[in-house]
Amino acid sequence: MNKKHPVLVFLKAQLSAFTGGILDYLVMIFCTEILHIHFTISIAIGGIIGAVLNFSVNRYWTFDDNNASKSPVGMQLVKFIFVVAGSIALKSSGTYLLTNWLKLDYKITRIIVDIIVSLSFNYVLQKYWVFRKPKLS
């Protein structure tokens, strides 16, 4: 059995999240600063675009040691959509609240919220629910 060390899986997940997060963050800034869309909506737009990259990388690289890529993509995608929806809601509302309470730029509060949501919500749900190794009958 080719089981990878949990730390390696965690690091791969963080690299995947960072890559998707950079794309997400840049789209958010573009939508807010160039297109003049409110940052809470821009977070949703960037989140959806970053999620496409993140799902693909996680399915075929990060969690592949768990045979995630051999699981039916449909159910993983449905689960992933629920995680992304929750993540976007947490990031949008958290960024909005911190921006208003702390009177900081949304670009700064977004990074703070991203770190918290990424480690405590996204990683846990993706590892143990979305890309979980299927139970053998």
How much β-strand is present in the residues? under 5%
Weakly predicted, low-confidence segments: none
Main beta sheet: none
Order of helices and strands, N to C?
A: HHHH
Average residue pLDDT? 88
Question: In DSSP terms, counting alpha (H) and pi (I) runs of 4 or more, how many helices?
Answer: 4
Helical percent range? over 70%
- Termini separation comes to 18 Å
Number of distinct beta strands = 0
- What would you call the shape? elongated
- As for the number of domains, it is 1
Rounded to the nearest angstrom, the radius of gyration is 16 Å
Structural class: mainly alpha
Structural overview:
The chain is elongated, with a radius of gyration of 16 Å. The protein is built from 4 helices and no strands. By secondary structure, it is an all-alpha fold. It has one domain (6-130).
Summarize this, please?
With 137 residues, this protein is an all-alpha fold. Helix content is 79%, strand content 0%.
Topology:
Layout: H1 6-34, H2 39-62, H3 73-102, H4 106-130
Helix pairs in contact: 1-2, 1-4, 2-3, 3-4
Structural descriptors:
137 residues, mainly alpha, 4 helices, 0% strand
